[in-house]
UniProtKB/TrEMBL annotation:
Keywords: Hydrolase, Signal. This is Rhamnogalacturonan acetylesterase. One of its GO terms (molecular function) is hydrolase activity, acting on ester bonds. Residues 119-144 are annotated as: Disordered. CDD domains: Rhamnogalacturan_acetylesterase_like (cd01821). The keyword Hydrolase applies. It comes from the Bacteria. It comes from Caulobacter flavus. Residues 1-22 form the signal peptide. Residues 178-340 form the SGNH hydrolase-type esterase domain. Belongs to the 'GDSL' lipolytic enzyme family.
């Protein structure tokens, strides 16, 4: 989130480019006005205007207030003009937190800017007779979700989501790719959440967060389903990749994707690191957060065996930054204690692996601390208001406030 003035670019079409930048250049800047007196140069949007493919804009049907604009995959700078008397939280695509609790006085107007990454499942086709795939192999849960459709969707949440105008323009910024499993992914439904979908809120609009993490994934399945191919096809020099696997990789009862901590798990980590380094991007390894399992003394039991230590060892061997989320999550859970820690987890605390908005938000703050400590080139893109965070002194769960999204489901999470 960043507050400030946006450039006046309405009607500007970017110069021709190649690759991912060419896709971004296919759409002109589009400006929309939701007020009763539309401003010149803005497209007026009535409150009951539903999205249709012909016009390429409109509100999504159903509960909540989500506005969509047709957009090819790429990075998009979104600028909102917030009206007076607002109490607004903004999410994008599948509930990615972009800005929170934007409050304005009665006659105050404020601008909020952020960058949203959009994508589709297609891949550049391999040459004739060459191995490869034409697209990411999506699981049924992903199909039809905002993360994989042909539009950019912004959700206005909160007690008073008063947005007067919205402008969408192509952005050419470094990308922060997220590779991982259900604890990282953009969970599409309340009340579950992954730390990756909270992370955009902590960055200035000088980078985009492109989360390709998905529930149930392992390092092997991420390869087999062409998810790594998709990420690498969009990776450019100067980008970053945060890589967190382990929860599912350690499952010996998943024989097709199991990897051993002392051998194959390390080998796959090294291969991922090598792929990003070959493209002059910066890989960052992340140890998996602990599951919520306490001993009688109120200390977290390590259910990940030697996997976190393997990540640390690979990082030291290759000179790769490592964010030790295992250590920070241990401090976080133990600070809450067995009685309060369930309030950070999904399914009303019955789930000991996956998190709710509160737990995901606090873990994202842990990731931010890891970035500040070990990835200075990425840390300079953090928002000015991120502050500092000590996982041993988390926000009390009962004082945490997060405006919910309209999408809600009690279905079991994939891979659980």
């Amino acid at each position: 989130m960043l507050l400030g003035r946006r450039s006046v670019l309405a009607g500007l079409l970017l110069a021709p480019a190649t690759g991912a930048m060419a896709a971004e250049a296919q759409m002109t800047v589009r400006s929309f006005d939701f007020t009763a007196k539309p401003r010149e140069g803005f497209t007026p949007v009535a409150a009951d205007r539903l999205y249709d493919a012909a016009s390429g804009y409109g509100f999504e049907p159903g509960e909540g207030r989500s506005f969509s604009v047709a957009a090819p995959e790429g990075d998009w700078r979104v600028t909102l003009e917030v009206e007076g008397g607002a109490d607004l939280t903004v999410k994008a695509e599948s509930r990615r937190l972009m800005a929170e609790q934007i409050r304005t006085k009665a006659k105050e107007r404020r601008e909020v800017a952020f960058v949203v990454n959009t994508r589709d499942a297609s891949l550049p086709p391999p040459p004739k007779n060459a191995p490869g795939g034409a697209g990411v192999i999506l699981n049924p849960r992903e199909k039809g979700t905002p993360n994989w459709d042909d539009r950019l969707t912004v959700e206005f949440c909160g007690p008073a989501p008063r947005v007067a105008r919205m402008t969408v323009e192509p952005a050419s910024v470094p990308r922060v790719f997220l590779l991982g499993d259900s604890t990282v992914t953009d969970q599409p439904f309340e009340p579950a959440a992954g730390w990756g979908q909270m992370l955009p809120r902590f960055f200035a609009p000088t980078v985009s967060v492109a989360s390709h993490a998905e529930s149930g994934e392992t390092m092997k399945s991420f390869l087999m389903e062409h998810r790594l191919d998709k990420v690498l096809s969009q990776t450019r020099a100067g980008d970053f990749a945060l890589i967190q696997f382990g929860h599912n990789d350690q499952k010996e009862n998943w024989p097709q994707t199991y990897v051993a901590a002392d051998s194959t798990y390390r080998d796959y980590l090294k291969a991922y690191v090598g792929e990003f380094r070959r493209r002059k991007a910066t890989p960052v390894l992340v140890t998996s957060m602990h599951r919520r399992r306490f001993d009688e003394a109120g200390r977290i039991i390590n259910t990940h065996g030697d996997y976190p230590a393997a990540v640390l060892a690979v990082g030291a061997e290759l000179g790769v930054p490592v964010i030790d989320l295992a250590a920070m999550s241990k401090a976080f859970y133990e600070a809450l204690g067995p009685a309060q820690a369930p309030k950070a987890f999904a399914d009303g605390g019955k789930d000991i692996t996956h998190h709710d908005n509160y737990g995901a938000y606090e873990l994202a703050r842990c990731i931010v601390e890891g970035i500040k400590a070990g990835v200075p080139d990425l840390a300079r893109h953090l928002a000015a208001d991120v502050g500092s965070f000590d996982p041993a002194r988390p926000t009390p769960p009962d004082s945490f406030v997060m405006a919910p999204s309209a999408a809600r489901s009690n279905a079991a999470l994939r891979g659980n």
